[in-house]
Amino acid sequence: MHAHQHDIGVSQVAAAIAEPARTKMLCSLMDGHARTSTELAAIAEVSASTASAHLAKLKDLALVRLHVQGRHRYYSLADPCVARALEALMVIGQSAPPTFNPRTPDRLQFARTCYDHMAGTLAVLMHDRMLAAGWLLVTDEGYQLSGRGEQAFAGLGIEVGELSSLRRRFACSCLDWSMRRPHLGGALGAALLKLAITRRWVTQDLDSRALALTALGRKEVSRRFELELPLEPETNLQAKRPSTIGPRAV
C-alpha cells in the first residue's frame, strides 16, 4: 500500500476511535463478549439510531464484526489486533508518569481480559516468569516455545501443535495498560486464558473485563509457575469482613 494510503487509513481509524461514544463501545468489547446494538447504545449513553450509525462506521473500518443469529445481531471486536491497539492507546492515554501508580480500578488492575487473553498484574507476572524460566524465546516474529516451554504447556494440557496451525500469531507480547509492561498475547495467550477459565483458576465477570483468581487458581498458578502472588484487593477486604455471598456464576 502506498504511504499516502497508509496515512489516510490511520487518520480514519484514529478519527473513529476518537469519538467518545465509539470509544466506550470498543472498550466494552475488550472483554471478548459480543453485544447487541441496544446494549452498546446503553453503554455509550446514546440513542439506538446513533448507536447504529456509530457501529456502521466501526464496521466499515474493520474495527468491529457483525454476527447474525436469526433475528439477533451482535457485535464484537474484529480481531485481536484491534484489542492490542486499544490496549496500547490506553497506555498512551494515561496522564500519570510510569513511576506513579496508574489510576486503574483495583480489580481490573489485578486481572482482566484483553479481548481473548489475560491482562493485568497476574498476567504480567506469569509472562515474566515464562521468560525467566526459558519457556518463551524472543524472535523477530514474537515468541516461540523452547523445548522446556513445550513440555510445560503440554503439562498444562495445551496442544501447542494445534495452536501453531491457526491463522493468527502464535505468541506475542501485548503492552499492558495498567502495568505498562508486556503480557502474553496471541493464540498461546488465548489458550492459557481458556484453560484458566475452564479449570476455574479464574472466574470472569459477565458485565466487565474483570477476572477473579480463585483459591484453586492461586494454588495452581503459584505451583505451576513458581510464583508468589500478591493478594487481590478484594481478598484483603474479605479477610477483614467475611461475606456469605457465593461466587458469581460463569
Report on this structure:
It is a single chain. The chain has 2 domains: 76 residues, Winged helix-like DNA-binding domain superfamily/Winged helix DNA-binding domain (Arc Repressor Mutant, subunit A, Orthogonal Bundle), CATH 1.10.10.10; 159 residues, no CATH class. Helix 2 packs across helix 3. By secondary structure, the protein is an alpha+beta fold. Strand 10 and strand 11 form a beta hairpin. The protein is 50% helix and 17% strand. A 3-stranded antiparallel β-sheet has the order 1-3-2. The protein has a two-stranded antiparallel ribbon with strand order 4-5.
Spatial order of the strands forming the largest sheet: 1-3-2
How can the largest sheet be summarized?
Answer: 3 strands, antiparallel
Unreliable segments of 5+ consecutive residues: 95-103, 235-250
Radius of gyration: 19 Å
Strand-residue fraction? Answer: 15-25%
Q: Count the domains.
A: 2
Specify the overall morphology.
Answer: globular
Number of strands: 11
Please estimate the helix content.
40-55%
Q: In DSSP terms, counting alpha (H) and pi (I) runs of 4 or more, how many helices?
A: 12
How confident overall, as mean pLDDT? 83
SSE series = HHEHHEEHHEEHEEHHEEHEEHH
End-to-end separation in angstroms reads: 44 Å
Task: Supply the helix-strand structural class.
Answer: alpha+beta
Which terms would index this structure?
alpha+beta, Arc Repressor Mutant, subunit A, 2 domains, three-stranded antiparallel beta sheet, 17% strand, globular, disordered C terminus, HTH_Metal-responsive_Reg
